[in-house]
Amino acid sequence: MAKITVNEVSKRYADHTALDSMCIDIPERCIYGLLGPNGAGKTTLIRILNQITAPDSGEVLINGEKLCQKHIAHIGYLPEERGLYKKMKVGEQAIYLAELKGIKKAEAQKRLKEWFDKFEISGWWDKKVEELSKGMQQKIQFITTIIHNPDILIFDEPFSGFDPINANLLKEAILDLCDKGATVLLSTHNMASVEELCNSITLINKGKSILQGKVSDIKRQHDTHQREIIVRCDDTLKVMNIAETYNNIKVEPTDRPDETKLTLFSESPNELLNQLLQVGQLVSFKEMLPSMNDIFIQEVQSKNKAS
Amino acid sequence: MNKIGLIIKREYLTRVRKRSFLILTFLGPILMAAIYIIPIMLALHSSTDHLRIAVVDESHWFENNFKTNEEHTFVTMPGQPIDSVKEMVKTGVFDMALYVPPTQLNIPSNAVVYSIRQVPMEVETHISSVMEKEIENQKLMAKGVDPEIVSAVKTDVNLQIMRMDEKGNEKETFTEVQFTLGLILAILVYMFIMFFGGQVMQGVSEEKTNRIIEVIISSVKPFQLMMGKIIGVSLVALTQFVLWIVLTLVLYLGFSTYLGLSNPEMLSQGTVMAQEITSNDIMSNESVQNILQIVQSIDFGTIITCFLIFFILGYLLYATLYAAIGSLVDNNTDSQQFTLPVTVPLMVAFFSTFYIPNNPDSSLSVWFSLIPFTSPISMMVRIPFGVPIWQIVVSILLLAVTFVFMTWFAAKIYRTGILMYGKKLSYKEIFKWLKYK
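Above: the input entities. Below: the structure tokens describing the complete assembly.
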């Protein structure tokens, strides 16, 4: 059974439709990517899951139960627009936010101390938020998001504002939480992190789901059988001559004069390889699966053209 | 503890711990005490300022009229030329010189005061009143009227105002006291609504600009957050109010004991003089004795109860509106266009406090004190004069119903407004939000 089921959810605002009969199934213990261009309806969907707004029609199920007030304690949400009270002390604020999620003060204090030790930021407890750098504030924001041990985590652009080191720390923390049983919904424009983290995705455009499934499956479906071959040969003319006999090949020079890059669009590269091996040295052979970035652009553009 | 309680607690504690709260808490009573103490100090101080005044009267009308009194010494200098007296003023023998030029046929209506320092107002009034009185007497005598008769004719009329109710009970009323009391109460309500309503607005827009709002409303309902803030701030207002009263009393008592120990006579003298200065008319001893009666005639039970009800309901009504406005505001610059609908009724209510005391039972006054947006302030002006119970009840009910409706209205705007960033908002658009689910 799916952890989260979004069933025919629609939401209309005065001048546009934010979500149009959206259906998504998010399995348990996975990292699920929510992709889409700006204004596609991702944030609206996330706000519906967090009960910040209500759908006009359709329903959301959590563990098969209709979404209700008690689920708030099961969800940890890191919004895209996030911040903290600037004038409040770090520790005090973290306890306040944990208490709002329904955790007793003593328990919140104990858990926070552990997390602060883990992130090596115990010295910040009595500092005011405005004294911290943006990256430091993000760490505290992350801790307050997960302090109530939610089994559903929703991250909206979690990596913005992090340097590569802290982004990596965050990435590991997310993977770790998923290992421990959490279901993660990740909304991001950062396609590299989607490929690294997500098991499955939904691509939303103009309130509708236009692509859904496992990342590996989606990549297979979009495979254009592109192979990249680099050959080393002092006489590049020989390579060119071989290439000219194929019509599905693209030849490009590289930054070394004796190396040539060939891009082949074919499922059977063996014949070409045999010919090339006779004239020169094979440097590399790569299967070029399309990146999520390419798929994103391709899918959204083709949908927009069609409409 | 439930969530709204947590929000109230945070709002209350962060505000009470602020330095500005402490400063205001201590500054308020000092200002209030100063209103009372400074006139006393001034009265005590000015009575020690003794002036020596030379009188050169070449008309010979007033030679016997300027008598040395407690405050000033008058020295008549018959036959002395004014120029030599002026020299004496310059060298400091006298503080100032009064010169009445000679007249043969006319009545002397000109006089000059020569002085190095600024002539106190009170000396000016004294001199001209002495001269006017003497001229008046002389004129009466010329017409053959004995001034004795004139003074015997003068009578002070003591006008007593008695309010009656249906049962025929009569009660004496004191307009000045009611006027002052009503005005103070109304201005207090106005100030607290403006100040603490503004704090609610600021708090809401701070949460919005800080971008913490979405984090919080994923844990609590926007309505809970809004009400928690409004109630938390109202508790701060009440705390400040109580502290002000306590501190003012402490300051006043402290000051009285200090003065009372050093010179009990001065205190009573000072107090009487201060009252003379503040009320700007000379209260007779009789009316001082009447103070007890006045105090007894005021129905403090009703006034305090009404004050608390109207103060709290009025604050709540405006605070919900301020919260809605705060949710629309991205930064402080565009808050103006949205605060206008709130400040206008407040200002109207404030200006009504100038009109109502003149005629507290006129139909306009009644309307002001019934309409929910002006009633918290306008009704307070009327309360000390006595208001029919049905009007108070209707006014409170209207206020309460409007508050409930406004809370619904404000919550709808608030819920959508807090999540809107970087968008120019029009009233038309805001009204569409009321329909959102």
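Note for the figure: Residues 164-179 of chain A form the longest helix (16 residues).
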